[in-house]
Amino acid sequence: MQRLFDIPATPLVPVRGETAGYPVHRIFGVGRNYAEHAAEMGYEVDRETPFYFTKPASAIVATGGEIPYPPGTSNFHYEMELVVAIGAPAFRVSVEDAAKAIYGYASGLDMTRRDLQLSERAKQRPWSLGKAFEKSAPIAEITKAADFGELGPQRIWLKVGDQIRQDAHLSDLVWSVPELISHLSRFYHLVPGDLIFTGTPAGVGPLSPGDRITGEIDGLQPVTISIGAAE
Q1: Which of 9, 132, 145, 194 is the most buried (most CB within 10 A)?
Q2: How far is CA 60 from CA 14, 26, 70, 141, in A?
Q3: C-alpha 65, offset from chain centre
């Protein structure tokens, strides 16, 4: 069957040491996965179960460029995150087997229209307006899991200009990466091309046009983005 019209190409994320890119299928985000961030948002961490939101593939944007200040918001926030790239099918996998599904890791930003997220949350509505919009998931190149090693004490931090705003360690994650993959695979057939943004540390805050953000995780390429004029 022929297509009625063309659609945007699948975004590709560079992979360290590879000439081919990682095609993005879906983007899952994890909410409140650092206790101090949950606290600054007015919540306690719920260890009973993680929860998720999604972003479209059109949210992907390469590190090093500029993104516009998005429409419909006056409170645009950064959130620095470890991103997990899935590289093998995973459905109802155990925590012990979850690592077999990991292709690699990257530094990423979960850009958020905070005012829209909070207003929808107050009405007990989904967070889509606050989270799921174009160019809201800047990402650096992926480092293969075998080249990165074990997750644990690596530092994760973010600067706006020269000022550090977020500073934590991956060991502070409430739900570990294997736990997240195992839990998410109860509800989805995870496949290569799926990305999981694993949550952000405390210190999130607003941005203005002209700001430049740099987010880093020990052992991974930094993610950098400048904020352009409002659309």
Answers
A1: 194
A2: 12, 10, 14, 12
A3: 17
Q: What is the DSSP letter of 183?
A: H
C-alpha 37: how far from chain center: 15
Within the chain, strands assigned E span: 12-13, 22-23, 26-30, 52-55, 60-62, 66-69, 76-78, 80-86, 102-109, 112-113, 137-139, 143-144, 155-160, 163-169, 194-197, 205-206, 212-217, 223-230
Spatial distance between the Cα atoms of 190 and 197, rounded to a whole number of angstroms: 14
Report DSSP letters for 54-96, one per residue: EE-GGGEEETTSEEEEPTT-S-EEE-EEEEEEE-S-BSS--TT
Region 12-230: CATH code: 3.90.850.10
Listed residue (107, 109, 84) closest to 218, CA to CA:
107
Burial of 96 by CB count in 10 Å (0-12 exposed, 13-18 middle, 19+ buried)?
Answer: exposed
User: What is the domain partition of the chain in residue ranges?
Assistant: 12-230
Q: Render pLDDT for 74-98 as a digit per residue (tens, 0 to 9).
A: 999 999 999 999 999 999 999 999 9
Residues in the chain, overall count = 231
Q: Which residues contact 150 (CB under 8 A, 6 or more apart)?
A: none
Other C-beta atoms closer than 10 Å to the C-beta of 119 total 13
| Residue 103 CB neighbours (<10 A) | 20
Least Cα distance to 101 among 28, 185, 167, 170 occurs for: 185
Nearest C-alpha neighbor of 85 from the set 220, 190, 195: 195
pTM of the full predicted structure?
0.96
Token pair 């022929």: residue = 2
Neighbours of 154 (CB within 10 A): 19
